[in-house]
Write a structure and sequence with these properties.
Length: 179
């Protein structure tokens, strides 16, 4: 049986890579340009996305809320003034951590309990938390598109269907099937 959580995370990585390819075609100043939008800049959006991916990785792998906040504070310094190339590298490293974790678990349907001081406990299959991470990224990639259009630029097409088409082409070229 296919590990759906791993496939969703593969899509998340694919979509983020597409965005970095797209953003690298723009002048770096445009990525950091302040605009009146959902976030102050494209870079601020990317930093938010990265920190959220980190928070959820730490959460699903068992860190407490307090440990997560402590680690996040350390990362806040690390992300101060980050360049597009640097944040891309960090995204790829975190994606590798997710994939390593998901490849090492036996059952993506295993129940995971998380705890938050304000919201309390939540218990759900692991893959539901992964779906949340992917949906969060999709939502903010939409923000990036809107922000770029506001700046007179085009966005990047990262709908899930385009991932599926590209994935099938890769399997067809290698002679494999993913069925």
């Amino acid at each position: 049986m296919e590990n759906q959580a791993l496939k969703w995370m593969d899509y998340h990585l694919w979509a983020n890579k597409k965005w970095f390819e797209h953003l690298k075609m723009l002048p770096e100043e445009k990525v950091k340009q302040e605009i009146k939008s959902v976030f102050p800049s494209l870079m601020d959006t990317l930093v938010h996305m990265l920190k959220t991916d980190l928070i959820w990785l730490w959460t699903i792998t068992g860190r407490t809320y307090e440990e997560t906040i402590h680690s996040l504070n350390e990362w806040n310094e690390k992300l101060e003034g980050v360049t597009l190339i640097e944040i891309e590298k960090l995204f790829m490293e975190i994606s590798s951590d997710y994939k390593r974790y998901l490849n090492g678990i036996g059952d993506p349907l295993q129940m995971v309990t998380i705890s938050h001081p304000k919201f309390g406990e939540a218990k759900a299959p692991l893959q539901d938390f992964i779906l949340h991470v992917v949906n969060h990224g999709t939502y903010h990639r939409g923000n990036l598109t809107a922000m770029l259009r506001q700046m007179g630029e085009a966005g990047a097409s990262t709908d899930y269907i385009f991932y599926l088409y590209e994935e099938q082409k890769l399997f067809a070229r290698s002679g494999e099937t993913n069925v």
